[in-house]
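Researcher: Let's do a round of design. I'm pasting the structure tokens now; please hold your answer until I've finished.
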């Protein structure tokens, strides 16, 4: 490996750390700050161009980004909002891609297949900055779920669409029927591969109680799901998402200790921080050299991307039975920021006609999205009822957080006492202090509960109980304790109870 490139990467990471410290004192989202710093560095030409190949982008950058997002996505919340999320991430992606493609082809005289390739590249959304803003302002969970869920799924569908169109461009023909059938095949195939590998990893984790090994296993899973799926000519992206969802919603809940969950979350958070830091600075570095020569094309691309997003969001969210408030629709539209994946796809293009103009437009759209939309979205949301969270709910969440943290600490202490990691007398002293804190937190928690909050808590608790029952049934079948027929009968009854909770 070139030592010069390594030193440049280390320097960029040092800059990213400095930016991370600076944004603690400046009201600016981290990713946006990275882009601005990259622009400044690029303006002074402090770094030579760092070239990322398609292999590096697809096999090293995408799997960790996708896996971390999927692991931290609650499957139950996805199910509850599956209609808007599924339509936005499938029909919405197709509508946006086609509109952007035809607009770019018409105004810039770019061949339609190339223009459609650009449309697929800039369609995936990245909610990193949006969700950070939402957490600060206490935005309703359902709205957060819709934006996050759409991002997780449209990353997969858009990258699949990009790969199919790219193959058509290289073959020199645009076949709609082939594209649709291939899209369905590779998406379904990727989900099956990811599901099988994710379940195998989950089963292995039930037999292990070692944070380092389990985290390493998830790392192997993220990359192997992508590689195996691609070798089978199905979607590696969808495979990684499927595996991540399974581990995040079953593996972490039913197969990991509290310390393993903390280690896993910390590790994947760091991995994504590392990748995003480099990629967002590279956006700033690269766009400076492209702006003067492609300013007109970038302006048209920004217009097409915004209009395409509007055309995808508003008709879908206004369909019957959606019940999405108008204010939420505006936030979903303007909060569809573009981030790492469009840039990664642009950097991966090799030997493609119009590569420079396509890559420049992609960087321009991402830059506009992060800086203009990202900053204005926070201002817009702050001045709407969305940001006015009830004081009682805030108190409830605070007491819930304290109670959850204290109980997890108590369980870990009991485990340490059982394994002899801590002396019995010392453990009992700490246990007595913890019990006092837990008692106090519970009293405050009860005071903070009202009828609505209690009903929500009951639904969440019952859902987790029923999911644990389903998992126990499957384990019993694998061990030969009960027959598959009996398990299926009981599981159907549990599914009916789960459906009632979703009403």
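Researcher: That's everything. Go ahead.
Model: Designed sequence:
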């Amino acid at each position: 490996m070139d030592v010069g490139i390594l030193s440049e990467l280390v320097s960029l990471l040092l800059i990213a750390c400095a930016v991370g410290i600076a944004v603690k004192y400046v009201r600016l989202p981290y990713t946006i700050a990275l882009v601005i710093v990259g622009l400044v560095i690029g303006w002074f030409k402090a770094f030579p161009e760092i070239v990322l190949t398609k292999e590096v982008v697809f096999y090293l950058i995408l799997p960790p980004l996708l896996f971390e997002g999927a692991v931290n996505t609650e499957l139950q919340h996805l199910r509850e909002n599956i209609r808007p999320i599924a339509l936005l991430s499938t029909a919405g992606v197709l509508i946006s891609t086609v509109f952007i493609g035809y607009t770019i082809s018409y105004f810039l005289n770019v061949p339609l297949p190339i223009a459609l390739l650009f449309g697929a590249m800039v369609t995936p959304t990245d909610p990193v900055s949006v969700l950070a803003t939402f957490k600060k302002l206490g935005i309703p969970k359902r709205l957060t779920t819709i934006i996050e869920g759409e991002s997780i799924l449209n990353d997969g569908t858009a990258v699949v669409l990009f790969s199919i169109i790219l193959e058509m461009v290289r073959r020199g023909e645009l076949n709609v029927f082939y594209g649709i059938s291939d899209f369905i095949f590779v998406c379904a195939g990727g989900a099956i591969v990811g599901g099988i590998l994710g379940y195998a990893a989950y089963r292995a984790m039930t037999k292990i109680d070692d944070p380092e090994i389990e985290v390493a296993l998830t790392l192997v899973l993220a990359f192997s799901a992508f590689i195996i799926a691609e070798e089978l000519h199905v979607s590696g992206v969808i495979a990684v998402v499927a595996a991540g969802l399974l581990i995040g919603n079953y593996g972490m809940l039913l197969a990991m200790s509290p310390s393993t969950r903390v280690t896993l979350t910390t590790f994947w958070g760091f991995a994504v921080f590392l990748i995003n830091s480099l990629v967002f600075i590279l956006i700033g570095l690269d766009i400076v050299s492209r702006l003067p020569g492609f300013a007109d094309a970038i302006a048209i691309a920004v217009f097409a991307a915004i209009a395409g997003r509007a055309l995808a969001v508003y008709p879908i969210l206004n369909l019957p039975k959606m019940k999405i408030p108008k204010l939420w629709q505006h936030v979903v539209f303007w909060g569809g920021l573009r981030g790492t994946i469009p840039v990664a796809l642009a950097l991966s293009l090799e030997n493609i006609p119009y590569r420079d103009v396509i890559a420049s437009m992609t960087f321009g759209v991402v830059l506009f999205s992060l800086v203009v939309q990202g900053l204005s979205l926070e201002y817009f949301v702050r001045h709407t009822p969305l940001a006015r969270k009830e004081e009682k709910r805030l108190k409830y969440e605070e007491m819930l957080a304290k109670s959850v943290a204290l109980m997890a600490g108590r369980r870990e202490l009991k485990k340490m006492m059982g394994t002899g990691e801590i002396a019995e007398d010392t453990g009992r002293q700490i246990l007595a202090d913890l019990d006092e804190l837990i008692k106090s937190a519970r009293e405050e928690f009860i005071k903070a509960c009202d009828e609505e909050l209690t009903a929500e808590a009951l639904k969440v608790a019952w859902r987790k109980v029923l999911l644990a029952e389903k998992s126990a049934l499957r384990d019993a079948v694998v061990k030969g304790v009960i027959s598959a027929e009996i398990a299926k009968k009981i599981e159907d009854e549990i599914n009916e109870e789960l459906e009632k909770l979703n009403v």
